[in-house]
Predict the 3D structure of the following.
Amino acid sequence: MAPRVAIIGAGFGGLCMAIRLQREGITSYTVFEKGATVGGTWRDNSYPGAACDIPSHLYSYSFERYTSWTRRYPAQSEILGYLEHCADKYDVRRKIRFNTEVATATFTGTAWRVTTRDGAAEDFDVVVAAVGQLNRPHLPDIPGMSTFEGVAFHSARWNHDHDLTGRDVAVIGTGSSAAQFIPEVAKRARALKVFQRTPNWVIPKPDAEFGPLARKAFRYVPGLQRAYREWIYRYAENTLYPALARGWSTDLLRRRALAHLHDQVKDPELRAKLTPDYPPGCKRVVIDSRFYPALTRPNVEVVTEKITRIAPQGIETADGRLHEVGTIVYGTGFRSTEFLVPMKITGRGGADLHEQWRDGAEAYLGISVPNFPNLFLLYGPNTNLGHNSIIFMIECQVAHIMNCLPYLAARGPMEVRPETMAAWTRQLNRAMERMVWGAGCQSWYKTAGGRITNNWPGPTTLYRRLTARPPARAYRFG
Ligand code: N01
């Protein structure tokens, strides 16, 4: 009998899992989705200018080539359209329970009992958690935040009812999200103050619309889409990855970013503010061509003084200035190291997943956790990338889980062996040593204790090989 599978989340990961099951004829699955539509982070991040900085043809499933991409880098609305298209084409939408948030998952010895916030409970053989790494907004802990008398919101919960036209606006944060919405806010606001704590390395995003000829070619020339996708993938793997591994292209990346800064920012004082003092790639490189020009507009000021307090009228900085604004947008990122929070996941013998992960989340292949049989993670610990498409990683993970299903169906619940997990962690730590992420910067890749729990330190080709290995030796059964 086919296993009963609970999938948590209907973003890129959850949909990929559902589609693979559906295509293999396994229909005994349910997708739990807390929101009202598919899309996950691409549904939640609807801020003006939201787009992907990975090219459309690579930021999509390998099995679902799409002829509707209108540009090299997809806008958020296009990605959502793509995911809606996939949900319909593969007929998985009817298996999704929308507005249904999973509260707990408990291993009973033979099955997983999944309960939802509305109190309903149901048993499954397998749980696939596909909630992503960037699903919970991080709001900073700045004194006085609650006293602010204007309108404040986080970039992932954009207040579309609040028109910014003619207003005095502050943006806190200058990561990849802020870099995308700052140009849009700058166009509308009377005055915009950008509070930058740490400058980022920024490289250009060579975006362009596909002309009618290119779109026709992608539609009708056999193999063109596949070849184009392969080319982008290889390019990222062979030029960007070595920069993150402190290899041959490190200096190239630095020079590219500095040249971009010099081209777009002529004022030496502003340029100095925007020049990072840590190696490129240590924090996620921002890929954007519109960010710097927005910062040079006459109505925009980049503030680098430390924020000391939020006052009713605005933001106070360490130099004693009060920056009066009526709107604060928090572009302050996500609670990225708190995997699977706020769900309570209880494994064999009452093991609590978050207790087990108190020093940082870890999972074999980023997928399986000792003491948690038949629980699989998509986009789990140490599977994020700084250089290539996360959809590639998700497809590797789904393939691994699909390989596991016949084993657990035949031999009972499967759980990664403790010695496999220990060897995995050792290898990961060794590989991590050469990566640039440890080079003295703070980033969302790390826990407060400095452990890198989010990123995959190898080439993605290696990850594909490792996840494709037959699972029997790594797991124990029953
Ligand atoms: O978040 P971030 P993000 N006081 O964590 C600042 C993905 N993404 O939403 O650097 C002052 O990168 C913080 O400062 P610092 C992508 O992977 C993908 O922008 O910590 N400032 C930083 O500037 C990306 O990396 C796409 O010193 C404070 C900012 O807030 C990830 O999402 C598009 C502060 C947070 O930056 C997250 O990006 C967009 C404080 N107390 C995003 N606390 C694609 O195109 C935080 N900050 C695929």
About this structure: The two ends are 17 Å apart (CA to CA). Residues 390-411 form the longest helix (22 residues). DSSP finds 13 helices and 21 strands in the chain.
